[in-house]
Design a protein that fits this description.
- The protein is of the alpha/beta class.
- It folds into 2 domains: about 170 residues, Rossmann fold (3-Layer(aba) Sandwich); about 80 residues, no CATH class.
- About 40% of the residues lie in helices and about 25% in strands.
- The strands form 2 sheets. It has a 6-stranded mixed β-sheet, with helices on both faces. A 4-stranded antiparallel β-sheet has the order 2-1-4-5, covered by helices on one side.
- Helix 3 crosses helix 5, helix 3 runs parallel beside helix 6 and helix 5 crosses helix 6.
- The longest helix is centred in the middle third of the chain and has 18 residues.
- About 40% of the residues are buried.
């Protein structure tokens, strides 16, 4: 496998607690990877390390061969790694379209002053960005809300708005943190179709999700964490029968039911 994203021996400690302990995995172009584990297993810490919110205490993260360790989140987004958040990060004072445009900022060459004063190619960039935002909102099923405030959206639709905003950064790797939260089954099914379509364009996707049915039916490969360590890695079929995952993620009850 030619790795687009390479995570090697990543560790992160908070006050003596090892949130991540020597975690390694890779991700190929166009691959969908599920990152699973019980609460407190280190999933969100890993996403925060990958996106630059946290700096790892050890190990390395490389995107297209370039180390991301120590880079600011904005630089990491510009390098091609974009994310959504477990807790919604929606700007209530902006329209749905404007929320998507926020995600495009790392790709704009003219900068904020150019946008304010109409300098250089800022007007052309603005038109192109608005067109892209409209296309992305169409893709996630929110086209009819383009000029509406986010308060008009359901919780599940706001999740989709975050996906559109993350895509506006033109990512090589898209990380989705609990994308099914608050969504109906129909919305989750539509999201799965969207993720597979994105993967076919070459975007690599990491999905953190407690809905194991969603994960098992979607991803190409799974990395399972528990207490900050990787306990298993493999196809959904292999992970479904892995004793360590059943014990850690599904619990003893799930283990007993399986027997």
């Amino acid at each position: 496998m030619v790795e687009l994203l390479s995570v090697r021996d990543v560790g992160k400690t908070f006050g003596g607690l090892k949130a991540l302990d020597g975690v390694s995995f890779g991700l190929a172009k166009g691959e969908v990877l599920g990152l699973v584990g019980p609460n407190g297993s280190g999933k969100s810490t890993m996403i925060n390390v990958l996106s630059g919110v946290y700096r790892p205490d050890g190990g390395d993260v490389r995107l297209d061969g370039r180390s991301l360790v120590g880079a600011k989140p904005s630089a990491i987004a510009a390098a091609g790694l974009s994310r959504t958040f477990q807790n919604l990060q929606i700007f209530g004072g902006l329209s749905v379209r404007e929320n998507v445009l926020v995600g495009r900022d790392c790709r704009l060459r003219s900068g904020m002053l150019g946008g304010v004063f109409g300098l250089g190619g800022s007007l052309r960039e603005e038109r192109e960005a608005k067109s892209l935002a409209a296309d992305l909102l169409e893709k996630v099923g929110l086209a009819r809300f383009v000029d509406a405030p986010p308060s008009m959206l359901s919780y599940g639709q706001r999740r989709l708005l975050e996906v559109a905003r993350a895509l506006a950064a033109d990512p090589k790797v898209l990380m989705l943190d609990e994308p099914c939260a608050g969504q109906s089954q129909a919305e989750a099914d539509a999201l799965a179709v969207l993720i597979r379509a994105l993967a076919k364009t070459g975007i690599a996707v990491i999905v953190i999700e407690h809905n194991m049915r969603f994960v098992m039916n979607l991803v190409d490969r799974i990395v399972a964490l528990n207490f900050g360590r990787k306990i298993a890695e493999g196809t959904p079929e292999a992970i479904r029968g892995d004793e360590a995952v059943i014990e850690a993620y599904l619990g003893r009850r799930g283990h007993a039911e399986r027997r």
